[in-house]
Amino acid sequence: MANAPAAANALDVLEHLSRHAEPVPAAAIARDLGLPRSSVYHLLKVLHGRGYVTHYTEERRFGLGSAAYELGSAYQRQAPLARLARSAMRRLVDQVGRNAHFATLDGRDVIYLLEERAAGQPTLVTDVGVRLPAHLTASGLALLSALPQAHVRALYPDRGSFVQRNGTGPRSLTELRSLLSRTRADGFAREDGTVTPSLSSIAVPVLDRSGRPLAAIAVTFRSEDGSPEHVADLVGRTRSAATEISRRLSPARP
What we know:
Blueprint: H1 5-18, H2 26-33, H3 37-49, E1 53-56, E2 61-64, H4 66-77, H5 80-96, E3 99-106, E4 109-116, E5 131-133, H6 138-145, H7 149-155, H8 173-186, E6 189-192, E7 199-207, E8 213-222, H9 228-249
Antiparallel strand pairs: 1-2, 3-4, 3-8, 4-5, 6-7, 7-8
Helix pairs in contact: 1-3, 2-3, 5-9, 6-8
């Protein structure tokens, strides 16, 4: 990006604003980004003129504008997560001969964006568009394990937050935290018969360059086939697919 410093700086400003829950003074933006105040004011003026930044005059602060929201909405309409993940998911299914699915987090639910099925494997409930409680699924546990503890606590404020399925799954924040700690230690999430009896799944998160979870990839297999060697192979191949998708969704800066 060395040949387009103004564009890089404008994107840095927008990313900086996106990381704050409240509008930010221009001086703080300049300080945090290590940019001259004059340059920051110029960038903010241009971004404000295009609607990407809102200027709260009385507070002397700046926040994201409506154009940033519209850009995010257009991103969602184009379904880039599923589009960029599809080829890696197909290769993964070809390698392991098991069904695989790709999901993202929405509150306390996971939403399945993509499913690739292998021949001869059982039909799953995880069709595209299906929502399931995150704390009951391998995909959800993988995503939750990559979130800050405060974020998880906010999602699950009380026991009423813990929906049950087939009488299984964590029933409290303490139980969920234990599952997430094990997931982080193992490097992958696993659920056994929680979603569908006799079926198990492993999952790993797809992270952006800041380590935030964008989505998760899960592979489902018959529980009787879950030998340690088989699970280790599935995890390794799934992690490779997640790394590939992560690089496509959140490429390193030049």
